[in-house]
User: What shape does this take?
Amino acid sequence: MNNACPNCGTVYNITPQLIGRSTTCKKCGAALVIDASGLQLAGGERPEGQFDFQPVKGGFGKGGFGNVLQFFKEDLPTWLFRVGVLIAIICLFFALLDKAKVDRRLAKVEAGDNKQRRLDEEFQRKFQNPEKGDKESFESERKERDKARKNWQTIEKPKLQEEVDSARYSARTWGYWYTWGMMWGFLFLGYAALGYLAPEQATIRRIVGSIVLCGMILFIFIRFVFIESVR
Assistant: This one.
């Protein structure tokens, strides 16, 4: 039996025992009758003695997919708002994560330099006025200190610096795509905000649309006008 509303596709639980009964669609309000083939559109006014039943919720069948499409058509600004927010957040935080990766590797280089400086100062304080009996200890520790400094300068630090350069290159490369993603996210948000400003929308939606538009304009001004002029 056809258990979907012929007008909007909303799915209902229909059984042969309901043949001959009538109802109206909970979604679109169309007058329906139940015959041997299932739900059919009824002409004229809503008949007396109707049978009331609820639509089937969820599912990925014909009716469920139709409901999703119907909701998408009826509330397109909300869908665009969700997609725009998701894209904008992903691109924004990925860019911040790339910057944090560079800062983290720079911090390792800085920590290594500070460690070498601290060890040099301790060595100088310890052997500031070495006595004759301390000459052997002085020479031994000086050689170890020179070896450690050379190892840092020629092996460890260059390796860390290479990781810093790699992270910077990756951040600059992906920054191009993050900017593209932010642009598309803002386009979706802008279209959704304009849809929320339509006269038929609720007051709260018009307020949200106004706030989103003002926030976008402010962000674009700060990011692409103020920051670029400072650079």
